[in-house]
Write a structure and sequence with these properties.
265 residues; two-stranded parallel sheet; mainly alpha; 42% helix
């Protein structure tokens, strides 16, 4: 893998005792504000993202750790888009996800690794065909995470690099294409109720942007089919019924579901 490490263009010599979640939120807001700028105008983004290299994630509770990694994923997505431009074909698209990376807490993560090894570490896996043929990830065990960082960084137990499972990730994580939401939530320190409210707003927008809720049958984003095993509910129910049940507050009563497959940028 030929990596483009977007936050390794300068040394980080500052204080590593920062608030990781606050840093990730500030970074994401900055990245979004710089959309449309040229690659030569992203110096503030490079400087701020360098602070990720030495973050200590140990103080974060599971909710905040989840929010941190979602913020980091979206920051890298936007940062990489500014630096590399829009992928022009399928080969460029997968190269973009496999190669564009951040150093976080002493370890390197591409967009693909952030999604599949960190955020989805305890969730349904992508198909073997997708992972074997298109997605390239560097799998690391607990010992590598804890004993072999790429440079001197605060100690982070391996659990800091694995998020709790949450099916709602499927309707929060933006891949930057037409099968995703056109808005990105920013997670900060907040109560559980505020956290759930923000996720609900993000999911509602995602379904409206990437699905067709006005059609009969309702068209849901294809990501819900790709990761259909994430659908909560009794395993005796089909995944269509489970999605319809858990999304009823947004969809209302639906008789039939299909999945919309549109991945253009």
């Amino acid at each position: 893998i030929h990596r483009l490490v977007c936050n390794d263009f300068e040394l980080f010599l500052g204080d590593d005792q920062q608030d990781p979640l606050g840093l990730s939120a500030k970074l994401l807001r900055l990245a979004v504000s710089l959309q449309g700028c040229s690659a030569d105008e992203v110096e503030p983004l490079i400087s701020l993202s360098c602070k990720l290299k030495c973050v200590d994630l140990t103080p974060l509770e599971p909710q905040d750790l989840w929010g941190f990694w979602v913020n980091v994923y979206h920051s890298l997505l936007v940062h990489s888009r500014i630096v590399c431009g829009r992928p022009r074909n399928v080969r460029h698209l997968f190269s973009f996800y496999n190669n564009c990376s951040y150093l976080v807490g002493g370890h390197i993560f591409s967009l693909a690794e952030l999604e599949h090894l960190v955020l989805r570490s305890q969730m349904a896996k992508a198909s073997a065909r997708l992972m074997n043929l298109l997605v390239q990830v560097w799998r690391r065990d607990d010992k590598e995470f804890e004993e072999r960082p790429a440079f001197r960084a605060p100690y982070n137990p391996s659990s800091n690099f694995r998020c709790r499972p949450d099916w709602r990730l499927n309707l929060v994580l933006c891949a930057g294409n037409l099968a995703s939401s056109s808005k990105i939530p920013v997670f900060e320190k907040m109560s559980a109720a505020a956290f759930d409210s923000l996720i609900n707003k993000a999911m509602e927008h995602f379904l409206g942007a990437a699905g067709r809720l006005d059609k009969k049958p309702v068209q849901l984003p294809y990501v819900l089919y790709r990761f259909r095993q994430d659908a909560p509910g009794a395993s005796t129910d089909g995944y269509d019924r489970r999605w319809a049940t858990v999304l009823a507050p947004i969809l209302g009563d639906v008789d039939r579901i299909v999945y919309r497959n549109s991945y253009n940028w």
